[in-house]
C-alpha cells in the first residue's frame, strides 16, 4: 500500500457516473425513468422510439405539461425536482419519481437532449425550446406542438467498459418491452406506442383496466382469471388472479403494484404464494396482476435506487390483508365470482349467505331405511380452505373475511 494516500474530492462527472451506476444498468432502466417522468407530467399519450435495443437511441415523447425554458437546465442537474419540497412531501410521495436524479444520471453516461413546450394559455404564445446536456449549452428555439421529448443517444459512450456488459440488441429490446408493459398495465388511461428500428411493435390505445390487461397478458389469462376488488380500512387490493389451471413454469406473469408503482416485494409475493399453497404444485407459479392501494404515509418508497422495492409501516397487516383477499377469491364457488369477461371495473360481487359463511349448508341426513342420498340441488360444488398454515387474523384488516 502506498505510504501516503490522501483523501480528496471526486470530480463532479465521476460522481455523476458513480450515481448513474445505481440507476442506469441497461437501456430498460433508462426507459423506465423517462416513462415515469412522462406520467408524472400528466401525459395522456406517450410515444417511445428505440434503436438497437435502446443502446443507440431512446426517444420518449409525451403530451404532458412541459418544462419552462428557464427550468430546462435545472432538470438536468442532480437533485433538482418539482415533485417534493420538504421531508413531509418525501414521507407521502404520490408521484412515481421524486429524487430528481434520473436525467442527471442518464446524462452522465449518454448524450441527452431535452425539447419541451408548456401547455396552457400563456404557453400557447411561446414556441418550444431545446437544450443539450453539454457544458455551456443554452436553450435554442425548436418546433414542438406541446409536451416534452427526451432523447438519449449512445448509452455508455464515455464508459466503454460498462457497455461490454450489455447483452444483444434483441435481449435489451425485450427488457425495454417488459418495462413498457409493467408501466402500461397500471395506467390504462394513457396511450402507449413502442417502435424499434422504425417498426411499431406495441400499440396500446387508452382503455379500461380489463382491456389493457387483456392486451398485455392475453385474453386466455382473463378467461382463466378471477376478478378481485377488496377494501378494508386504509387498504384496498384489486386486479386479477388466475386459477391454478393457468399456472406457469416460470414467474413471468406476476405483476404487483403499490400505489401504481411496479414493485418486486418479498412480503407481497409471499402473501400471494401462501394463498395459492394448497392449490399449486411446488414447481408451478401462479399468474396474477394485483394493485395494492395504501396511504402513502404507510410505506417508504425511498429504499431502493430503482424504486422497485418498498417498506411497509405495518407489514404484518398488509401481508394478512393480501393473503386472505387472494385466498378468498380463489376459494369462492365459481358462481360467486363473475367471469373476467363480464367485469370491467374490477369489482367482486357480493356472495350469498351460504357463500359468506364459507361452506354450503348441508341437508339433513336421510331417515333410517331410506335409499335416497342427500343432494344440494342446483348449487355448485364448493371447496373451502383447510386453513393449514394460515397466518393469524389481524383485527380490522380482516373485517371483510
Annotation, overall tally of beta strands: 15
Number of helices: 12
How far apart, in Å, are the first and last alpha carbons? 65 Å
Structural class computed from helices and strand pairing:
alpha+beta
Mean pLDDT: 81
**Could you say which overall geometry the principal axes of the C-alpha atoms support?**
globular
Query: Are there runs of 5+ residues with pLDDT below 50, and where?
Result: 339-401
Largest sheet: 8 strands, mixed
Task: Record keyword descriptors for this entry.
401 residues, alpha+beta, 5-stranded mixed beta sheet, 12 helices
Layout of secondary structure:
Layout: H1 12-23, H2 27-40, E1 45-51, E2 57-62, H3 72-75, H4 87-91, H5 102-109, E3 111-117, E4 128-132, E5 140-142, E6 147-153, H6 160-163, H7 169-186, E7 191-196, E8 199-204, H8 209-217, H9 219-223, E9 225-232, E10 235-242, E11 254-258, E12 261-262, H10 266-275, E13 288-293, E14 299-300, E15 311-312, H11 315-331, H12 353-356
Parallel strand pairs: 1-7, 11-13
Antiparallel strand pairs: 1-2, 2-6, 3-4, 3-6, 4-5, 7-8, 9-10, 10-13, 11-12, 14-15
Helix pairs in contact: 1-5, 2-7, 7-8, 10-11
Amino acid at each position: 500500500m502506498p505510504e501516503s494516500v490522501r483523501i480528496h474530492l471526486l470530480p463532479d462527472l465521476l460522481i455523476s457516473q458513480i450515481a448513474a451506476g445505481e440507476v442506469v444498468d441497461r437501456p430498460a432502466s433508462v426507459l423506465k425513468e423517462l416513462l415515469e417522468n412522462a406520467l408524472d407530467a400528466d401525459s395522456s399519450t406517450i410515444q417511445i422510439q428505440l434503436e438497437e435495443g435502446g443502446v443507440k437511441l431512446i426517444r420518449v415523447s409525451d403530451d404532458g405539461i412541459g418544462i419552462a425554458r428557464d427550468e430546462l437546465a435545472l432538470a438536468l442537474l442532480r437533485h433538482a425536482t418539482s415533485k417534493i419540497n420538504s421531508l413531509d412531501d418525501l414521507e407521502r410521495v404520490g408521484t412515481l419519481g421524486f429524487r430528481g436524479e434520473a436525467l442527471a444520471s442518464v446524462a452522465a453516461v449518454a448524450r441527452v437532449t431535452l425539447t419541451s413546450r408548456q401547455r396552457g394559455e400563456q404557453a400557447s404564445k411561446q414556441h418550444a425550446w431545446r437544450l443539450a446536456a453539454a457544458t455551456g449549452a443554452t436553450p435554442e428555439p425548436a418546433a414542438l406542438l406541446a409536451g416534452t421529448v427526451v432523447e438519449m443517444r449512445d448509452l455508455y459512450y464515455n464508459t466503454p467498459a460498462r457497455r461490454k456488459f450489455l447483452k444483444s440488441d434483441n435481449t435489451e429490446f425485450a427488457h425495454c418491452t417488459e418495462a413498457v408493459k409493467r408501466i402500461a398495465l397500471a395506467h390504462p388511461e394513457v396511450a402507449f406506442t413502442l417502435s424499434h428500428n422504425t417498426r411499431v411493435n406495441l400499440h396500446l390505445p387508452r382503455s379500461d383496466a380489463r382491456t389493457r390487461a387483456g392486451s398485455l397478458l392475453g385474453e386466455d389469462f382473463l378467461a382463466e382469471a378471477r376478478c378481485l376488488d377488496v377494501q378494508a380500512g386504509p387498504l384496498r387490493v384489486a386486479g386479477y388472479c388466475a386459477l391454478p389451471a393457468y399456472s406457469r413454469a416460470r414467474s413471468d406473469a406476476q405483476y404487483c403494484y403499490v400505489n401504481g408503482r411496479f414493485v418486486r416485494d418479498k412480503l407481497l409475493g409471499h402473501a400471494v404464494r401462501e394463498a395459492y399453497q394448497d392449490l399449486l404444485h411446488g414447481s408451478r407459479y401462479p399468474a396474477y396482476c394485483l394493485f395494492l392501494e395504501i396511504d402513502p404515509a404507510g410505506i417508504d418508497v425511498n429504499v431502493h435506487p430503482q424504486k422497485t422495492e418498498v417498506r411497509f409501516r405495518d407489514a404484518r397487516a398488509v401481508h394478512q390483508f393480501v393473503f386472505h383477499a387472494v385466498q378468498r377469491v380463489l376459494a369462492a364457488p365459481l358462481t360467486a365470482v363473475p367471469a373476467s369477461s363480464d367485469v370491467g371495473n374490477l369489482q367482486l360481487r357480493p356472495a350469498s349467505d351460504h357463500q359468506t359463511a364459507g361452506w354450503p349448508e348441508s341437508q339433513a341426513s336421510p331417515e333410517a331405511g331410506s335409499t335416497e342420498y342427500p343432494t344440494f340441488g342446483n348449487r355448485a360444488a364448493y371447496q373451502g380452505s383447510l386453513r393449514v398454515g394460515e397466518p393469524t387474523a389481524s383485527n380490522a384488516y380482516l373485517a371483510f373475511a
